[in-house]
Amino acid sequence: MKIGTRKSAMALAQTEAIARLLRVADPTLDVEIVKFETRGDQDQTSKLLRHGGKGGAFVAEIREAMRGGELQAAMHSLKDVPGNEETPDLIIAATLPRDAANDALVLRPGLSLDVFRASSGKGFKIGTNAVRRAAYLRRLFPEATVIHFRGAADSRVAKLDRGDKQRLPDGGEVGPADALVMARSGLERIGMAPRIVHDFSVREMLPAVGQGIVAVECVEKDWVTRGRLAKIEDVQSRLCAEAEREVLWVLNGHCNSPIAGHATLAGNEMTLTAAVLDEAGDRFIEVSLQGAADRPRELGRAVGLDLLDKGAAEIIARTRPEEDSLLA
Ligand SMILES: NCc1[nH]cc(CCC(=O)O)c1CC(=O)O
């Protein structure tokens, strides 16, 4: 069974986790990891929108290889899989147990969290390329400057430590960054969790839909692969993923949407909280509802429709990439 992945340290760690689980489920199975370099990885400057968003950049090439039979499965961070496109010939056949879903703060060595907190971030440049994180940061630390900052997780931290500037698509540059906000799960997977100085709770910074969940995709009609992947499926992460992604679907959220969503399970009950934020940080709509854990899409739909009722569509439209850019 060949599993395709991007070749960043984080992606490889995630794919190795899939391979480990597959080998435990079936010790006779021969699992091979096939590394892809995608357009998104080669271009470290643009804001990714030119490639049709994060998902478009990282996902399209690997999917083609799967459709062509060169691969049987593809590793995705569920968070990076677009919620507003249909792929009828492909299916997410397994979701791994969810890792930490929250975001975390990483500081340049020598800087102090106490100073950062006491000043509400005044004088600090915080790097992120996620509209959602930028929006929360502007709410939480109104005195800080949020700058565009990108790169694979390990190289992003290396850029922070070296004090590198970030080049911008228009030829300018920003930085250096004093701090980064990144997913705890990603930092854990590349062994960089010790760099975390503060964990944002999911209450203070609601994560991206699907954050912390590794997904395995395959061709819908490939029943042999689906059978293998069914064995490593985590039911709880699947239920949460379905609820959270239904919100994206209802809102027609694109990859760079300022949308957050997080589901938790307690017995037979699921709680789903989702929010839509204005990048400037001035508008914020949040909805939290409870429902039956075994009807996740119903709950996701209710939350999504409630967000729309409260004005979500207009905020999302403002951050939507130009239609043309999807073809570039
Ligand atoms: N777009 C990058 C990305 N995609 C998935 C993760 C890790 C978190 C996850 O698995 O959800 C990250 C890094 C980050 O957001 O800091």
TrEMBL record:
Q: Name one GO cellular component term.
A: cytoplasm
Q: Which GO terms describe its biological process?
A: protoporphyrinogen IX biosynthetic process
Q: Which GO terms describe its molecular function?
A: hydroxymethylbilane synthase activity
Q: Where is the Porphobilinogen deaminase C-terminal domain?
A: 239-308
Q: Which cofactor does the UniProt annotation name?
A: dipyrromethane
- Domain Porphobilinogen deaminase N-terminal: where? 1-222
Q: Which InterPro entries match?
A: HemC (IPR000860), Porphobilin_deaminase_cofac_BS (IPR022419), Porphobilin_deaminase_N (IPR022417), Porphobilinogen_deaminase_C (IPR022418), Porphobilinogen_deaminase_C_sf (IPR036803)
The biological pathway it contributes to is: Porphyrin-containing compound metabolism; protoporphyrin-IX biosynthesis; coproporphyrinogen-III from 5-aminolevulinate: step 2/4
Q: What EC number(s) does its UniProt record assign? A: 2.5.1.61
Sorted alphabetically, the keyword list is:
Porphyrin biosynthesis, Transferase
Q: What is the official name of this protein in its record? A: Hydroxymethylbilane synthase
Reaction(s) this enzyme catalyzes, per UniProt: 4 porphobilinogen + H2O = hydroxymethylbilane + 4 NH4(+)
Family membership, please give it.
Belongs to the HMBS family.
What job does the chain carry out? Tetrapolymerization of the monopyrrole PBG into the hydroxymethylbilane pre-uroporphyrinogen in several discrete steps.
Q: What is annotated about its quaternary structure and interactions?
A: Monomer.
Source superkingdom: Bacteria
Q: Which Gene3D superfamilies match?
A: Periplasmic binding protein-like II (3.40.190.10), Porphobilinogen deaminase, C-terminal domain (3.30.160.40)
